[in-house]
Design brief:
The protein is an alpha/beta fold. Helix content is 50%, strand content 17%. The protein is built from 14 helices and twelve strands. The strands form two sheets. An eight-stranded mixed sheet has the order 3-2-1-4-10-6-11-9, with helices on both faces. The protein has a four-stranded mixed sheet with strand order 5-12-7-8. Strand 1, helix 1 and strand 2 form a beta-alpha-beta unit.
Length: 353
């Protein structure tokens, strides 16, 4: 029997230095029935030239272009062009090990899955040294909505739910439900929230073969403070509540949902404190705005069940004492600067529930 076609979609914007390695990790997969769709999102560097060279060399690589509209819109265009039974989204500055697609498809076919979720490996480079922080998940198979929904908050908190690149999607499920990436910040979590709203058959795979390059200059994970960060996190969390609170989850699970948002508020305050372009007065004003927000207050009151170190940071927000918040986050910043591996290990631990 012929193996089902997988459509791999790459939204490309100014990744000239990384694109070839990313695409070649697909070309070199042990699973060969893959079509590769590159959507050039108005790149201003040599990304389009690299993409065209790859298309000329490999018959399963197809290149399309659009004006700069964002990764989500580029992915939507790729979905329209996709012919595969399964959809896979690879970020063009990351790469995958050779058996990754095979393991995902095998799992989907065996379990008749609409969605497969895997772990991944965070890659950080500092002063020529590579730091690997793996994110493992326990392998599980869910056959009905109720069972998956009871565990979904775990995948929300350990970050495996948010992103599209550690997932294999059944194409008919995406297209029949008219699911699209919205044109907003962090479109990937919003997209996946809509996916899990109606998904029934989900496989979770303990596989960390996805290599997530975290600190590329100019990427979302390496940018300085964005003034829309707080409002974007709120919009994101309101969508989370819209989905999860309709599932009649146990009180313990509800506490973990609010813990997710509180941990994101810790992240926002860390970014504010570490921002060199802000004066002390500006930092205090921004933190005060967060602490006075109604949704933040509600979340701090209802959150529960998190990890001890994150709970300490959340407790500092509960005090409302801006000086304590700044001191703690300054300390965290020092650890991040001089002891990156320790910082990353602590951060990873705090995201597990």
């Amino acid at each position: 029997m012929k193996k089902p076609l997988v459509t791999a979609i790459l939204p490309v914007y100014n990744v000239e230095k990384y694109l070839k390695k990313s695409v070649m990790s697909l070309i070199n997969q042990s699973y060969k029935n893959i079509e590769i769709i590159i959507v050039n999102d108005g790149s201003t560097d040599g990304s389009l030239c690299v993409a065209k060279e790859l298309a000329n060399k490999f018959s399963n690589v197809f290149v399309y272009s659009q004006s700069n509209s964002g990764a989500g819109i580029a992915r939507n265009y790729g979905i329209l062009k996709a012919r595969g039974k399964y959809l896979y989204f690879l970020d063009p500055d990351d790469w995958i090990k050779k058996d990754y697609i095979n393991n995902m498809v095998e799992n989907a076919e065996t379990n008749d899955s609409e969605l497969v979720i895997s772990g991944f490996t965070n890659l950080f480079y500092r002063k020529g040294k590579k730091i690997k922080i793996p994110v493992h998940v326990e392998s599980k198979n869910f056959k009905i909505k109720k069972d998956f929904r009871e565990c979904a908050v775990e995948y929300l908190n350990n970050t495996t739910l948010a992103v599209p690149w550690n997932k294999l999607y059944l194409s008919t499920f995406i297209k029949n439900n008219n699911l699209k990436f919205p044109k907003i910040k962090w479109d990937d979590l919003h997209f996946n929230l809509e996916v899990i709203k109606s998904v029934s058959k989900v496989s979770v795979l303990d596989n960390i073969d996805y290599q997530f390059f975290r600190n590329r200059p100019g990427s979302e994970t390496s940018k300085v403070f964005d003034n829309k960060l707080f409002s974007s996190r709120k919009a994101q969390f309101n969508h989370v509540l819209e989905i999860f609170l309709n599932w009649n989850l146990e009180k313990e699970k509800i506490g973990l949902i609010y813990y997710y948002f509180c941990s994101r508020m810790v992240e926002v305050t860390q970014k504010i404190v570490s921002e060199k372009n802000f004066t002390s007065k500006e930092k205090r004003k921004l933190i005060k705005k967060i602490l006075n927000d109604k949704l933040v207050k509600e979340s701090l009151k209802k959150q529960s069940g998190g990890r001890p170190l994150m709970e300490i940071m959340i407790a500092s927000l509960k005090t409302g004492n801006i000086t304590i918040i700044i001191i703690l986050n300054t300390l965290i910043g020092i650890i991040k600067k001089y002891f990156l591996y320790i910082f990353l290990s602590i951060k990873k631990s705090s995201m597990k529930v």
